Amino acid sequence: VIAAIFTLTGFSFFGKTIFNILPTYLGGFIYYKFHKISYREIFVTIMFSTCLSPSVSQIAFSSGLPIYSGVLIGFIFGIIGIFIIVPLSQNMAKLHNGYNLYNIGFTAGFIGILINSLLKSFGVNINPQLILSVKYHIFFRNFLFLYFILLIIIGYYKNQKSFKGYGRIFKYSGKLKTDYTELIGYGLTFINMGIMGLICMFFVFFTSGVFNGPIIGGILTVVGFSAFGNHPSNSIPIMVGVFFGGVFKVWDIQSTPAIIAGIFGTTLAPIAGSYGFYAGVLAGFLHLSVVMNIGWVHGGTNLYNNGFSGGLVASILFPLFESLRKK
Asked: Does the residue 131 lie in any domain?
């Protein structure tokens, strides 16, 4: 739940609005009533499934339809989307065996391909947008720094004014589902969240980045997943791999897309957690290449593009690493 809340909050800086996430929640309500299951069973999935919210806005306002028709069809699509993404996500996790933390993003990538193809077949073309602001760089830099320090302080006091036991987190690979609140308690989890937030900020500083919407969204997502998989030992190797990829490949490591690839790329943290530092570096190195080229396939209809890329990379790497481990 913590991961979902932070992810939803982070993407509210770029892509999600109250309007375009409402159909997903409404669809979730209808879904659990239709299948007669507990709402708690799918609540987290519903929160993550708002990654398809750009499709609602696209259909509502950019499809060429009259505004009322567009809004109605957009809402209907958002509702139907839940009936597709919930069952699919349960099966998609088997492809990467839990080595991609953003499993809903992986699932939504395939659904996004279908959406993009359908829209294009009716003459609706999606034009990707890259609108970045540097106006509030200093404010958010200072705010996030203080917030993460506060998280560490809260965790310190909640853990009986101690950091004792934090080292235990490094023994977990981070594979889905690794809930640190149950394994090591809320105090140490908050400490881990704060530390991971500071590490992400350092990555932005190191690459001369700017604290804009996508980067803030990425940092908050990682902080959320630091209660559910990420920790320094399994995340830093991924960032190192993306950084080296930015140095040796055609992309500028100082650009926002490359920086968020390093931050969101920690979706592959379980690879490093299970197979070691160099495996994580390789995963990050490959992730940059995939994520920078895969977005056009779904046309931006899936906000969790790094989750889609991470799922593809993890699905290829984990069976290879397993075969080498058996030898």
From this structure: no
Domain, as residue range, for 102: 2-121
| Domain-located, residue 132 | no
**Segment 107-141, tens digit of pLDDT:** 999 998 988 888 788 877 766 667 778 888 999 99
Q: Residue 101, CB half-sphere, CA atoms under 13 Å: how many?
A: 34
C-alpha distances (whole Å) from 180 to each of 61, 94, 110, 148, 190 are 41, 22, 29, 18, 10
Q: How many domains does the chain have?
A: 2
Judge if 317 and 195 occupy the same domain: yes
Residues 217 and 243 in one domain: yes
Residue ranges in the chain assigned as alpha helix (H): 2-11, 18-35, 39-48, 53-61, 67-96, 103-121, 137-158, 180-183, 186-206, 213-225, 232-248, 256-264, 269-275, 277-298, 305-326
Separation CA 184–CA 197 (nearest Å): 19
- With 0-12 / 13-18 / 19 or more C-beta atoms within 10 angstroms meaning exposed / middle / buried, residue 154 is middle
Compute the distance between CA of residue 30 and CA of residue 82 in angstroms, rounded to an integer.
Answer: 9
Q: Say whether both 182 and 115 belong to one domain.
A: no
Q: pTM of the entire structure?
A: 0.92
Number of neighbours of residue 208 by Cβ within 10 angstroms: 11
Is there a cis peptide before residue 177, judged by omega within 30 degrees of 0? yes
